[in-house]
Hints:
Blueprint: H1 17-35, H2 56-70, H3 81-84, H4 87-97
Amino acid sequence: MVEDTRRSTGSVRWMSSVEHRAFSDELVAFIRAEVAIGDYPLEADTDLVLTGLVDSLGIVLVVEWIESRLGVMIDPGDIVIEHFDTVASMVAYLRGRGDTPLD
Length: 103
C-alpha cells in the first residue's frame, strides 16, 4: 500500500531519506513489473535506455506513474535523458524541482 504524500490541507509532506529510498525501490519495482523489456538486472543506477530495458513508450509510462504517485505534473521539456536514464537520476530530478514530496 502506498501512503498518500499530501496532508488533508493539500500541502506537500516532505519525505525523509528512508522514504526517498522507499520511493526509489517502489519505482524500480514498477519498472520491473510494468515497463521493463527483458530480464536485465535493474537497480537504481541501471541505465534504462542504454540497456534496452525501457523504450520511449516505457518512459512515458514511468512519467505517468510518477505524476500519479506524487501528484505533480512533469513538463514535457523536462523529459530528457539526463533526468530519466536511471531511477537515481529521476529521484534527483524530482528532488531538485522543489515542489515534490521528495525535496
